[in-house]
Amino acid sequence: MRAGVRLALCLFAGALAATPAHVLADPAVTVLGRDFTFPNKIDGLPARLSDFKGLTINRFVTNDGVTLSYWEAGNGPPLIFIPGWSANGAEYVNLMYLLAKRHRVIVLDPRNQGLSQRIDYGTRISRYSMDLKQLVDHLGITQADFCGWSMGASVLWGYIDLFGTSSIRKLALVDEPISIVSHADWSARERKEAGSIAPSPEPLLAALGAAPPANPDPKDPSLLARLMLMDSPYFANSESFARAVIKDDPKSLGLIMYDHAGNDWRDVVRTKIDRPTAIFTGEWSANVPSQQWAQSVIPGSQLHIYSKAEQGDHFLMFKNPVKFAADLEAFLKDAK
What we know:
Elements: H1 3-13, E1 26-27, H2 28-32, E2 56-61, E3 67-73, E4 78-82, H3 93-99, E5 104-108, H4 125-139, E6 144-149, H5 151-163, E7 168-174, H6 188-194, H7 201-209, H8 223-228, H9 233-245, H10 250-261, H11 266-271, E8 277-282, H12 288-297, E9 302-306, H13 316-319, H14 321-333
Parallel strand pairs: 4-5, 4-6, 6-7, 7-8, 8-9
Antiparallel strand pairs: 1-2, 2-3, 3-5
Helix pairs in contact: 3-14, 4-5, 7-10
């Protein structure tokens, strides 16, 4: 974490609980202590961070004493994004810019991720779901649209399981298996429908901890290869920004992944989602079968499968933010 960010968090931590949310709306450039020039100039998107007028980074304290940050921009109906494992609001800079024209866009940095506090407790999806509930309460939002990507979808499933759907107007889920770890007694069909890829969390953690390929093959469908493949100027911009301003803590990230991988959300997906739902995946992703199963059991839900040419992998919303923003906007505007 940059020294300026650490100092800002320390200065604000003591007064957070008693201070109204709008008072804490500091410009992103101020909180980060720097501007940032994106490596690729793209029409319709900011060339520098300071060109994104109205982008703020705010904070609040949870009921277990953890300072969480959230990024915010725009006005209109609230749209809350929950990032995936190791992800953060900086990676959403393009999507926030596009969607803030019509929405109040909010991206939560989960505990131990992004600009949120690093701590050694609460590294469970259930606690992350409670953190989301407390963000909603902190903002005074009675109903919003929610979008969870990767592990962020699991946080939403935990949120729905614990608190129901009354605060959700519409729901978007992006490329998350229903159960990463399989049970020994599951049939091949059950594993496929759940999206299971490992018999226990350890092989997954080992794979995620491996060195990513320096020169990935554009035809390699593996997660790390797709992450390192910078063939999208949008993705190159958001990733370079995130890597410049965010420092991850591998130990705490490993703890939440261990808990995350072992959850089986099939009952929640099958029985507790009663809001209009859009599911997004892509041809490069191994998760297509599980997303198809989810669409089959969530009443009235829709499924978007991006082609390989449309950057349809696990990072589709960042690699093709113009299409994703348009598709999400159309879903949110639909009267159904």
